[in-house]
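Thread amino acids onto this structure.
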């Protein structure tokens, strides 16, 4: 089918590329001309595993092209709206980009179009879309409006698109439902050339759930808010564990074994970030408020999350005694691993708080430093985790990138000023870290002192470690 995707952000670009991958003829538009130029030259403006491969092969097969919104509107029988819905100062979602696209479709398109909202929007946006398409219709446009929320996670978005648990479509006509079924048929049947897995098989066919438009819109906001609630819940349990001396990892494991609860999203840490959870929780609170419903539960979720940074900084203060003048290494800036996205990342608020206390910050992230630099230019960006650790009084693990788990700990020990690791993601193994002579502080677990070690550190002549009388094993 000829399909159009408006907006080449994380959602739009993945959607366009994957729709082309499963056999459709896709036109993707982008209004940011610099970004559009990159895409037309075969460059990706974001880091997303596997996406480069999918975009390149779709372009080579002639099934994916990039251009203007006007050309996209003229191209497809179905138009996916994937433009941004950033938060307004009052927490509402800013729908001006969606409104502008609707107006353009109404004025420029003729004949039939299925207009699909894929961006995360408040309930009843579909109703407003229908109204706008009809008010500005000047060319004899015939249309249906559908809601098809995305459940893509950054870092695994290609896999999530191609192997979803569910495809939700909110429609008000059989024609819209049938078209969406046809678009997604290869995914529903799990029959397509999979770019992610070499031997791809055994995936469960996803549930194709058909609802009214409002329910589909609510499913998205309710899902993200529920997941955010799980995170805030376990973060409070972590606080409690720290007070009573229990281990939150064990508590989460025990809870997660109950299939009604499930193990996912019970990892405590410095809080949820990114461009989805913080804004979606806020928007959901506002949607409820406007409907006369006080969703106070979600207000607590938000409050607990906002307190995570201060609690973490408090740990740093407790460990360092005086933060002013201390050298702090930040490992990880992205809001989670396998992305270069730093929007609403806990790292940003954390770094700002440390700078405000007079610390010197050296940071390293495998992918997110270019984006972080534009928000916090005043810190030192380093070539790798080791460089960031040189002379540090504390290493803070802020994003749980795999590479931080596989470092040469003897080397790290030899270059730090103080052997102290404060792990905001419980990413490291306490026993291993303490074994190498570090004091290890994490979330919701007992602090671990450096182990009594048995062999001397061979290459640390210049470091002034607290534990420099101790020895480490080979
Ligand atoms: C989230 C949802 O998971 C997707 O289903 C949804 O489609 C997407 O938002 C969206 O609305 O577009 P994403 O923002 O990519 O996806 O990231 P998540 O993997 O959900 O993580 C969100 C935040 O929660 C991260 O900061 C992560 O570190 C944090 N988190 C996650 C925890 O602190 N603990 C956990 O157990 C899980």
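Threaded sequence (474 positions):
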């Amino acid at each position: 089918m000829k399909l159009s995707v408006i907006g080449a952000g994380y959602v739009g670009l993945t959607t366009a590329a994957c729709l082309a991958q499963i056999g459709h003829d896709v036109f993707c538009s982008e209004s940011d001309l610099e970004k559009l130029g990159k895409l037309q030259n075969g460059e990706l403006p974001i880091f997303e595993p596997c996406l480069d491969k999918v975009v390149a092969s779709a372009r080579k097969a002639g099934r994916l092209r990039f251009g203007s919104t006007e050309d996209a509107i003229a191209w497809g029988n179905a138009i996916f709206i994937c433009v941004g819905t950033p938060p307004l100062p009052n927490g509402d979602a800013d729908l001006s980009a969606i409104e502008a696209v609707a107006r353009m479709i109404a004025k420029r398109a003729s004949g039939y179009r299925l207009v699909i909202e894929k961006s995360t929007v408040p309930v009843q946006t579909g109703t407003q879309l229908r109204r706008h398409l009809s008010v500005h219709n000047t060319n004899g446009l015939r249309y249906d409006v559908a809601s098809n929320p995305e459940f893509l996670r950054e870092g695994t978005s290609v896999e999530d698109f191609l192997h979803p648990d569910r495809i939700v479509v909110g429609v008000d006509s059989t024609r819209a439902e049938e078209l969406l079924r046809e678009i997604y048929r290869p995914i529903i049947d799990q029959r397509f050339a999979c770019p992610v897995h070499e031997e791809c098989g055994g995936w469960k066919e996803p549930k194709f759930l058909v609802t009214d438009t409002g329910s589909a819109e609510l499913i998205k906001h309710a899902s993200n808010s529920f997941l955010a609630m799980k995170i805030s819940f376990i973060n409070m349990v972590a606080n409690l564990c720290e007070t009573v001396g229990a281990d939150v990892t064990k508590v989460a494991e025990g809870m997660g074994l109950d299939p009604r609860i499930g193990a996912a999203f019970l990892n405590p840490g410095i809080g949820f970030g990114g461009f989805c959870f913080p804004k979606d929780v806020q928007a959901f609170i506002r949607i409820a408020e406007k409907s006369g419903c006080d969703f106070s539960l979600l207000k607590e979720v938000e409050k607990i999350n906002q307190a995570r940074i201060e609690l973490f900084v408090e740990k740093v203060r407790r460990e360092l005694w005086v933060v002013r003048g201390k050298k702090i290494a930040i490992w990880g800036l992205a809001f989670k691993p396998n992305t270069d996205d730093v929007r609403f990342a806990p790292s940003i608020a954390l770094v700002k708080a440390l700078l405000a206390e007079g610390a010197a910050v050296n940071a390293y992230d495998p992918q997110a430093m270019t984006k972080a630099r534009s928000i916090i230019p005043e810190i030192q960006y380093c070539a790798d985790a080791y460089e960031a650790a040189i002379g540090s009084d504390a290493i803070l693990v802020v994003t749980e990138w795999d590479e931080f788990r596989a470092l040469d700990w003897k080397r790290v020990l030899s270059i730090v000023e103080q052997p102290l690791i404060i792990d905001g993601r419980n990413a490291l193994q306490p026993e291993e870290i303490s074994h190498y002579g570090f004091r290890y502080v994490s979330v919701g677990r007992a602090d671990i002192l450096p182990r009594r070690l048995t062999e001397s550190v061979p290459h640390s002549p210049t470091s002034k470690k607290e534990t420099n009388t101790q020895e480490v094993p080979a």
